[in-house]
Structures are given as C-alpha cells and as structure tokens.
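hey so u asked for the seq, here:
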Amino acid sequence: MTIPMLAEKAGKLPLEPGVYLMKDKTGQIIYIGKAKKLKNRVSSYFHSVDKHLPKVYQMVMHVSDFDFIVAGSEFEALVLECSLIKQYSPKYNILLKDDKGYHYVKITPGPWPDLQAAKQKIDDGSTYIGPYTSSFVVTQSVELAKKVFMLPGCKKKFPQDIGKERPCLNYHIKQCCGVCTGKISCQEYNDRVQRAVDYITVGADKIVKDLEREMTRLAESMEFEKAAAIRDQLQSLRRLNERQKVVFESKVDMDAISVAKGGTAVCAVVLKFRRGRLSDKDEFLLKDDGTPVEILNEFVARYYTTRQDMPKEVLLELEIPDAALLAQLMGEKRGSKVSVLVPQRGEKRQLVQMAYDNAVTGISYRSRRSSREVAGLDELAKLLGLGEPPAYIESYDISNLGESYKVCGMVVFRDGKPYRRAYKRFKIQTVDGQDDYASMREVLTRRLTRLKNGDSDDGFATTPDLILLDGGEGHVAAIRPIVQQLGLSIPVFGMVKDSKHRTRAIALGGQEVALSSYKAAFKLVTTIQDEVHRYAISYQRKLHKNSALKSELTNIPGVGEKRAKALLTAFRSLEEISLADVQQLMDRGKLPKKAALAVYDYFNGK
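ran it, structure tokens below
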C-alpha cells in the first residue's frame, strides 16, 4: 500500500485506545505501538512524512500495511503493547539487550578451598552458589567477604606453598590471615571460608551475632588468641558497614533511571537501591534517534514489563507520558502501590544524577570521548530542546576597536572539542559605526550564503547543528530571520555574560535560562564562549598591530602599503626586518635595491 492508501486506511480507524502493528512488504511486523486514540495516532504517521524524525521516517518508508487491536483502556493497550513487543521483537522498537548472563560464587574443592567469582557453572567438582544476574553483586560480595575474613587473594596453592616463601604485604597489613606461614590450621581456614560464604548468602547481621557468641565462648574458655582473631573479623565487618552507609535515610526500595545520548548511541542505566544501599546496576546500549522523553518513556515500559523485581519508587530525570500507566502496571506486579517520580532536589535527585553520570560514562567508554564532552552535549541538547546532541557547533563573536578594526571570529566545536581547521575570521565590510547586530547579520549572511552555494571550503561546507552567538536575545532576533530566509533549519541561541564577562545564561525564546543547574552544559558553553572571544579579539589585535607596523614602514622613502605588507609577510616582525642585510631585503622582501638601502639605513641609523 502507498502512503496515501495507508493514510486513507488510518482515517477509518476508531477513536478508541488500542495497539497498532506496522508491517513491511513481506508481512513482517517492524513496529508496535499503543495509542489513546488509534485513528489520530496512526494517521499522524502518514501525514507530513518528510517532517518526521529520521527513525520514524525510515520506519514509515518501510510500512506496507498495518493491523490494529482495540483495547478496553489505555492501560490495557500498554500491557498488550509490551506483550506483543516481547513476542515479536520488532526492528524499530527499542530492544533491551545487555551482555549479562548468569554469575556464581564458586568454592573450589579440596581441603583448602578458595572463594571466587565465576561467569559460568562447569562440572569441575566445585560448589556453586547462585545463579545471580549481576556480576557486580557477585564480584563485590566475593571481594568484601575475602577482605573481612582475611582470606588469601594471591595465586598460591595450599598446602603445597605453605612455608616456601615469606608472607606478602597483605599479611603484614592484616588483610590476609597468612596461610602460607603455616600458622593457620586447615580447620581454622575452613571456618573462615564458611563464615565468608555465610556472609554472602545470609548477610552481615546474622554473621555478627554468630561471631559475637563465638568470641565470648572462646574468651570464657581462655582461648584468647582465637578470640582476638574473631574480634578482628568483627571490627572489619563494622568498619565495612560504616563505609557502606545508607545513601538515603529511607529504606524504601528504589530504582534511579537515566539515559544519555552520544551521536547515534543511547545509554540507559538503572541503579537499584535496596534497603538504602546500591545493590546493582543495569546498563543498556541502545540505538534510537527520538527525543530524550520518547526514549526514556519507551525504555522504562520495556524494562519493567520484562522483569518481576518491582521497586516501591522509580526515580526519573524527565516527566514521561506513560508514568501513571506504568505505575499502575508495576503496582499490580508488586502487589502494592508503586510511584514514578521526577525529583527536583535533595538526595533522590542526587541518585538520578548518579544514574545519569553512569550513562554518560557508558557512552564515553564506547565512543572514546571524554565523559565531560558527552555530558556537555547531552545536557545542552536537553536544555535547548534539540532532538540530538549537537555534534557540530558554530559560535560567533564581534570585536570592535574604533571604526577601523571591526572583525568577527567564528569557531567550530565538533563532538565537544575545538575543530580549529574550520575556524574563520571576518572583516566587517558594510557596517558604519559600532553596530554589533548589523555586523552579526553581515557575517552570518556571508557565511550561510556560502553554505547554500555549495562552498567546498572545510569551514563553510558543513551545516551546523547549532549556532551560538556571543550575546543576548537581541543578537538572536537579528540572525534567526536570515536563517529562515535562506531556507535553513539551524537552531540559533545566544550566550549571555554577566557584568564580569563570565558565562551566565542561554538566551532562547525571548527569555534567558540560567546555566548554573546544568554543570556539564555550563562548562561546555563557557569553553565555547571563551574560545570565540579569544579568537575574535586576537584577530582584531593582530590587524591593529599589523596596521601600526605598516604605518612605521610606510614612513621609509620608497615603501608603500604593498611593500610594507610584503616585508611583514616575509620577516614577520620589525625586529627581523631590522636585522636583515640589503641582499636579504631584496631577496626575501622583493624590494628594489634603492628601497632596500633605504630600509637598511632606517633601522641602522645611517
């Protein structure tokens, strides 16, 4: 079916909640969605197709037909949508695939067993505890248990290596009981291993009580050395508990969720807090080009409809359309009320920020870009309402020094870094007086016209994802009409400074948005504003300096503007010119002999 035919079919759908299934020409389901009103939602795909986001446009271009299922309510539509997505895994829906398998705590066989984290269960005679879905939990638990009960972390084999070498540093700093010294019996070692296993499986509280009873018994039996060893283990457990203080006072189970975008990749992170502590992290690398709200909305729906562990609260960084429906669905699974919240301040907001920082790190690790660059671009996109983090940013600043030295600097940041080969400098040609708005209009008209005309120059050939002007709403109002007149769709915003010339806010939509709450975006914008100011003023100073040098050279008989410029190009400074002999002035400076003699005499006092 063609797009008009699909639009006609969609126009006949009911204004009822339900689920729609988009199919390609082979009949395969490529996208599944839900709608409060099927007719309105499905029809929107087949009108103004060229204005869709790239992902939606690609999907619509592959649609040959669609089916639909009417549901009794929007909530039922959500449940049905999630079930069908899980069943069919359509190409254009977000698929939550991570690299997590099952993980185990492994206790090796033999009289001197070792405690290890294992990625798989094999038939090697070992005892396996698990499975666990989180490698983070398994690895951390094994490391902490071995540290608390002072089990060896080296690669020595026992009893073969007992007494062969001097004990390592861990023994001397009391992080290892020193099996290799021969002072620990096999029975005592196995008791420590068993306590470590109990610590992992039943938790610290029960172990502490058991150890306290054992220490009292040993002390009463006059076995003071063994009691002291138990005391040391208790102290280690208590110190560990002090370091693992609750992240927040409430013991309510919570999940903090955030997404970060970097180029075409999206990283979603779920931090799980159970009984006040971080217990696990889920991380997913997705491919999607929707808005942050759309991505987060779909991710949360997919995530919780495929899991049984429901927290009491879900903390998000953005409001999502399906929050109430998801809370209802999760509440039914949990058997009690679940809240979906967007905290604005306090400890819960810090947990969401922690999730965001982890998502940024995930993107950074895979894209080989710094976390600061990824976070800056992602925050800036959210702040300005851009669909994607701006990979290619151009920034402009006007610099004036009287009537004679009016210039503009253009700097480019690509993927959050200065892209100096694309920097450009402009002399203001048509503006009388010091009129920053008119100067900015002239420069942007010249630059964007060259873009429209297909200029191949590296600094003019690329369409910027974002233009930032050094100035407020007045500068933005002067430039946006030029962008529109040239038929371009480039977002334009202003960078506002305070009285001390420091970055303060972004000018957008007739208002200013303070950057103080957006740390990564603030650092990025400050860097861009400082760089474009430095570049513009350095060009203006260079012109002023060259003009002053030319003025001095043109005082010499036989040296005019052209010869002065040629001399400065060849020798770069008056000092170099003054040190040159007549022949060098003739050869490098292209001066006739008479003019070369005059220049030489001028600097050598003859």
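Residues 556-604 form one domain. Residues 242-247 have pLDDT under 50 and may be disordered.
lmk if thats what u needed
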